Amino acid sequence: MKITRIDKSRIDQADLENPVFGTQFSDHMLVCKYKNGKWEEPEIKPYGPMSFTPALHTLHYGQALFEGQKAYYMSDGTIGIFRPEMNAKRLNHSAKRMFMPEFPEDLFVDGLKQLVEIDRAWVPKKEGYSLYLRPFMFGSSEFVAARPSEEYIFCVVMSPVGPYYAGEVKVKVEETYTRSASGGVGSTKCAGNYGGAFFATDQARKEGYTQVIWTDHKNHELIEESGTMNVGFVIGDTFITPPLSDRILAGITRDSILTLLRDTDIVKNVEERPIKVEEVIAAAEAGTLKEVFGMGTAAVVSQISTIGFRGTDYKIETPKDGYAMKIKKALTAIRMGDADDKYNWMVRL
Amino acid sequence: MKITRIDKSRIDQADLENPVFGTQFSDHMLVCKYKNGKWEEPEIKPYGPMSFTPALHTLHYGQALFEGQKAYYMSDGTIGIFRPEMNAKRLNHSAKRMFMPEFPEDLFVDGLKQLVEIDRAWVPKKEGYSLYLRPFMFGSSEFVAARPSEEYIFCVVMSPVGPYYAGEVKVKVEETYTRSASGGVGSTKCAGNYGGAFFATDQARKEGYTQVIWTDHKNHELIEESGTMNVGFVIGDTFITPPLSDRILAGITRDSILTLLRDTDIVKNVEERPIKVEEVIAAAEAGTLKEVFGMGTAAVVSQISTIGFRGTDYKIETPKDGYAMKIKKALTAIRMGDADDKYNWMVRL
Ligand SMILES: Cc1ncc(COP(=O)(O)O)c(C=O)c1O
Ligand SMILES: Cc1ncc(COP(=O)(O)O)c(C=O)c1O
Asked: Which NCBIfam families match (chains A, B) (predicted)?
């Protein structure tokens, strides 16, 4: 790894107290280029502009993907990263499907660690704050023809972020627009999945909702995800989340929560299985739908207070000491190093 | 329109005799920026690099789309562009679905004309050669958060291209991977649709095919498109092509061919209707499948010689004076100004 340090840190101009998500970037970035069929030596260097011609492949053909995770101060004052090897694996899952080269997983984890170490002044110290790490990769050949890029750039930038507060989360069951289909790219974090989702999300906003709940491409009957989070339901004392498929992003938070729930007595039963919109609505009407929440890196757990379905709003409790909050607490304890890390989830700097 | 001319043309270094598609670019490009909710004054300026930070929105969230069309010398020595207003409309159709701002259609057409005029030395004179025009648009804000870009860049670059020769075209009916779904972005020319297709195309290549025939997302029973072309079948003396939907790109070549076929006696019947793979295979077995061809800007008409389906290769005639070639001839006559342009398709410089 080549390391070129910035002359003078920009940290004194940064706002680590009230950071706006994804708008300030730390002093350094990691860049690694793929050329002639192989990855060159990665370089950590000053964050700054890149120069491309308008023929940049990804602008036309969208071979682009990303990851997202956080580095933060644990209770004992070390900086930790949560399960970074899972992001490395998922990046490569996305890469394969997008016909992009895989990036060495150990280099991914090691690169993140070195980069955070160099910019450790950028890791906010306030509780709930963190340094958001954004690895991404894109086709960087400069030609305009509908065939795969030959060159790629893997890059990591970092941005200090505050605690996630979404306010009241009202979601609408989306029955018109589709995020992904069997055989498609829905299980990847390719850029196009996000650009393709903005329209439906905006429609939902205009109707007074915060987000959509995506349903299956065939009949819009099955629940898939909510916005950019996986989604879980507690019906009676059973936790239910849709199974993974090539239509759903395999969330690392989802995986961690499933592991925790199977290992604790927070809920009685844990089910990964297809769940129909009608089952959720019936449970809401019967009063057995206890809680609904999104699962993702940003909020860890995000309680949903309303599900809108065909014009009717179904209210859901968002208790401060219910299932969602118990899960969040248990996960946070591991993340902060306050509970036994028996799954070896934390990678410390 | 602001115009800044290049100091010295690069035309003397260009190869207009044997151009490689999309690798050489003409002297100028058109750039127009969208900021604070409106398009700024467009500028024609020297083709050259753009500088972005790694937080460039489109690298992460894929709001990116493009168009493709050609300018070429007509028989009377004027330079013509084929139905550019259709590309302008389609760009805006894509833009809406990708939650991007629409670009004024008259400015699109006028911009192309002015740009080609300035770089007219780049329009190859050889028959079958042309200047490929590539309008495209992408989200250009520089933040990393999963919400729509606030700024956008519309750009047009141009590349001299030779006649399209694909060799023998063998297509494989794709029953595993999916290009698009109802409610998705399949009817747009968003970048992600292309990046998402490379993997399946490569699989088909490895099995000895040139391209895939995409089938519907639900059951892989209905024929959709072939690679980046719309597809037509002649069964008996009937031309059949799948109807437009939100899963299929509305090809301008397809539209033009439908218009021509309905207005001439090249085929007896013209049908836009869902067509099942099994219908095509049955016709191939019965000997009534006369011809199959792709329709698109690149090749106009591209004859398909083989359809691979579940391990069996069905051979199809590719006659030099059959339906496909009659259609190509009729369309080419209009494009070259040799036949009456009764639909007003040609825009001359
Ligand atoms: C579409 C989608 N689903 C789910 C998730 C949750 O994944 P994770 O828990 O790994 O953050 C994300 C965010 O990464 C996402 O973008
Ligand atoms: C997916 C797809 N289908 C069909 C077409 C054919 O469209 P057109 O005839 O406008 O070139 C294209 C090419 O633009 C395409 O990319």
From this structure: ilvE_II, PRK13357.1
